[in-house]
Amino acid sequence: SRDDARITTRWYPDFLNPSLFGTLHESGHAMYEQGTGPELARTPLARGTSSGIHESQSRMIENNIGRSLGFWRVHFPKLQALFPDTLGAVNLTDFYRAINKVQPSTIRVEADELTYNLHIILRFELEQALINGDLAAADVPAAWNDKMQELLGITPPTNREGCLQDIHWSRPSFGYFPTYALGNLYAAQLFAAAQEQNPAIRADVEQGDPISLLQWLRDNVHRHGRKFTPSELVQQATGQPLSHEPFVRYITAKFSDIYEL
Questions:
Q1: 23 and 141 belong to one structural domain
Q2: Which residue in 18, 53, 146, 230 is deepest, having the highest Cβ count within 10 Å?
Q3: Mean pLDDT of the 109-134 span
Q4: Residue 109 in contact with residue 245, Cβ under 8 Å?
């Protein structure tokens, strides 16, 4: 709710990324809830309008901001101060490239921005097969591994790193995974529109300051809660219906620069 947006995160004692980017991700969800209009409090409208839009806010903070060079230009020295033995001799450029390295991963939440949607495709296709009766639950581990090999060229060493890694199916929360892919598309389109409508946002983000972006999101997304459908909200905020093109432009520009393509 607007007044109670507690989050949880995950961490490993010897690997920073899951807790760092997981916390940024969950913070995006929390800021959406906190930003709903006060006039909507204690009504059915005082929540995010859909899971896809909600995931756009978390994926935007995690990736468009949290994996940007501008963000780390400001915050990397602080991280170095906290972990001097590990990061003291690492320069900003190498760190930025490392957190954006493209490589197949068995774990969805640790996947890079380019391969992440392949993890969603895998889960969506298996869900369809299960629901349609074309796949038995007992055959999910083998089907999962086959699909991982097909899409990413790797096979999980255990089911823990394969079909048992997510909480969703055990809840059961079937059909949720595509909202992450939708979130990536919504995030790119909203992020691009924000910078077009307020050019100061681009400069602020490049200097590691997301406050002007947050204010744009407050005005154009958060405050509306559930007053509009996702399609209506995106059309109103960006002037266009949802499209894959902003995501393709964003991902192409970012990784062409990182990999000097």
A1: no
A2: 53
A3: 97
A4: no
**Structural domain range at position 157:** 111-178
Structure tokens at 120: 């969603």
The neighbour count for residue 218, using CB atoms within 10 Å, is 17
Residue with tokens 């929390």: 30
Residue 86 shares a structural domain with residue 207: yes
DSSP state of 236: H
Q: Is the full-model pTM beyond 0.90?
A: yes
Q: How far apart are CA 82 and CA 9, in angstroms?
A: 19
Whether residues 117 and 49 share a domain: the answer is no
Q: How many domains does the chain have?
A: 2
DSSP state of 108: G
237 in any annotated domain: yes
| Tokens coding 70 | 């501008």
Q: Decide if 151 contacts 121 (C-beta within 8 A).
A: yes
CB-side neighbour CA atoms (13 Å) of 158: 3
Q: Is the pLDDT assigned to residue 127 strictly greater than 80?
A: yes
